[in-house]
């Protein structure tokens, strides 16, 4: 679905990407994650308010390493590059990124050198979390230093105009003590975002979109008992009511009393019928005598 205000997070394989999305949403701004392989048209169609480039395990110079889609830079919107994302911004503008000989992983003291919207309200010396092998060796001519770490690593910089920024550290993790403030500064001081998103508003807009999309169509929905399918079924039911038909298939490989939970507590909490179909004998007879796990998976998949 499309939101009037969206901060896109381009994922380059960071272990913290989901955390970036969470930190942004905690500030009542809608965020969405897209893989670095996403097509240019899809980025443009979303009309993002701002873009965050995540960290990642690669070196920007490694063969086959993910690259920055130039369309992001041509959109004229605020961009924040974090760690690997910072390196991509540097190489895009002609800067030099080099391996510093060893990975820097852990706490570091950040010294803010130049005033910037990104560090508004942040103390001149603050604790941040580093996790990188590459570091910026030479800034592009159209960039300026904002902060350095205690060991001299260039820790943050800003492109002329103040809309494109980068941090070598990770503001999204709790170990960066003023990370929330730094992300808030990017969202509201740089990108001009508004606090207009809540989980409740997401539910309302999703139900409306489902209702418009499905119309008077009937929908068959398989429910496993897990969170994903249960939430999906609930949203669809809120949109189209009795046009939804939910089914649960017992294949004989469930946890003890799980069918009872599906037919009892889950059905009651969701507030609509879930058809129960027991095909355990069919599944188990096909698996009889089979010990190889891969063969079992193949049989179940059929």
Essential attributes:
alpha/beta, 302 residues, Rossmann fold, single chain, 27% strand, 3-stranded parallel beta sheet, 2 domains
Description:
Helices cover 34% and strands 27% of the residues. It has 302 residues and is α/β, with parallel strands linked by helices. It folds into 2 domains: 7-190, Rossmann fold (3-Layer(aba) Sandwich); 199-301, HUPs (Rossmann fold, 3-Layer(aba) Sandwich). The strands form 2 sheets. A 9-stranded mixed β-sheet has the order 2-1-3-4-9-8-7-5-6, sandwiched between helices. Strands 10-11-12 form a 3-stranded parallel β-sheet, covered by helices on one side. α3 links the parallel β3 and β4 (79-82). α6 crosses α7.
Question: How are the secondary structure elements laid out?
Answer:
Elements: E1 7-11, H1 17-26, E2 31-35, H2 40-45, E3 50-53, H3 70-74, E4 79-82, H4 84-92, E5 96-112, E6 125-138, E7 143-149, E8 154-159, E9 164-167, H5 179-190, H6 199-214, E10 219-222, H7 227-240, E11 244-250, H8 258-270, E12 275-278, H9 280-287, H10 293-301
Parallel strand pairs: 1-2, 1-3, 3-4, 4-9, 10-11, 11-12
Antiparallel strand pairs: 5-6, 5-7, 7-8, 8-9
Helix pairs in contact: 6-7
Task: Give the gist of this structure.
By secondary structure, this protein is of the alpha/beta class. The chain is built from 10 helices and 12 strands.
Main pleated sheet:
9 strands, mixed
Percent range for β-strand residues: 25-35%
Computed Rg:
24 Å
- Under CATH at level 1, the class of the largest domain stands as Alpha Beta
């Amino acid at each position: 679905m499309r939101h009037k205000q969206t901060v896109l997070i381009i994922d380059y394989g960071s272990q913290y990407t989901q955390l970036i999305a969470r930190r942004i949403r905690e500030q009542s701004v809608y965020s969405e994650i897209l893989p670095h392989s996403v097509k240019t048209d899809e980025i443009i169609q979303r009309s993002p308010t701002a873009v965050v480039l995540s960290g990642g395990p690669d070196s920007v110079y490694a063969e086959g390493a993910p690259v920055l889609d130039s369309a992001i830079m041509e959109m004229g919107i605020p961009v924040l590059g974090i760690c690997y994302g910072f390196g991509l911004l540097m190489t895009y503008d002609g800067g030099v990124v080099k391996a510093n000989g060893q990975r820097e992983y852990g706490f570091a003291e950040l010294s803010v050198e130049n005033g910037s919207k990104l560090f508004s309200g942040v103390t001149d010396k603050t604790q941040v979390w580093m996790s990188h092998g590459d570091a910026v060796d030479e800034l592009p001519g159209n960039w300026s230093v904002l902060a350095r770490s205690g060991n001299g690593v260039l820790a943050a910089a800003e492109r002329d105009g103040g809309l494109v920024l980068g941090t070598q550290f990770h503001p999204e993790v709790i170990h960066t003590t003023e990370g929330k403030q730094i992300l808030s500064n990017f969202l509201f001081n740089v990108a001009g975002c508004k606090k207009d998103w809540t989980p409740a508003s997401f539910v309302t807009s999703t139900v409306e979109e489902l209702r418009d999309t499905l119309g008077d169509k009937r929908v068959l929905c398989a429910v496993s008992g897990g969170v994903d399918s249960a939430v999906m079924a609930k949203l669809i039911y809120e949109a189209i009511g009795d046009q939804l038909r939910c089914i649960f298939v017992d294949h004989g490989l469930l946890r003890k009393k799980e069918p009872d939970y599906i037919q009892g507590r889950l059905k009651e909490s969701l507030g609509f019928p879930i058809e129960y179909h027991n095909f355990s004998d069919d599944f188990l007879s096909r698996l009889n005598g089979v010990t190889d796990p891969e063969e079992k998976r193949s049989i179940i998949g059929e």
